[in-house]
Each structure stands twice: as structure tokens, then as C-alpha cells.
Amino acid sequence: MSFVKPYRSYLVNLDCISGISSRDIILNNDIRLPLSKSMYNKIQMVFMEYLGKKKMFL
User: Fold this and answer.
1) Which of 27, 41, 44, 58 has a Cα at 20 to 30 A from 20?
2) pTM of the model
3) Phi, psi of 8 (to 5 degrees)
């Protein structure tokens, strides 16, 4: 399992993310968590890599 820390108090499993916007991480259950500006690029890159790896194993 892989996790990311989008904001101070949150740790999110990549399996639970359905999307990322410039301000939020959107979870599979439609809950939105804040995403710090400084972490946006890194988390977006990690999430895209994760999706690519996941797709390879399907």
C-alpha cells in the first residue's frame, strides 16, 4: 500500500483517491480533503505513477 500526506493532519491511501484538483484530493466516497499548494505537484506525480503501475497489473 502507498500513502501520501496532502496536508498536515491527513494521511491518504492512494487506493482511496478518485481524483486530484489544485486544492483538494477527492476520495472514492466523494469526501474532499485539502491539498497544500506546496504538495500539489509531488502528489499529482506520485498518483499518476501509481495509476500507471496499477494499470500494468490489471
Assistant:
1) 58
2) 0.84
3) -45, -50
pLDDT tens per residue, range 29-57: 999 999 999 999 999 999 999 999 877 77
Contact 46, 54 (CB under 8 A): no
Coil, helix or strand for 48? helix
Instruction: Output the CA–CA distances (angstroms, integers) from residue 44 to 6, 55, in the order listed.
Output: 10, 16
- Enumerate residues 6+ apart whose C-beta is below 8 A from 3: 11, 12, 13, 14
Give residue limits of the domains in the chain: 3-56
CA distance 33 to 57: 28
Q: What is the pLDDT of residue 48?
A: 94
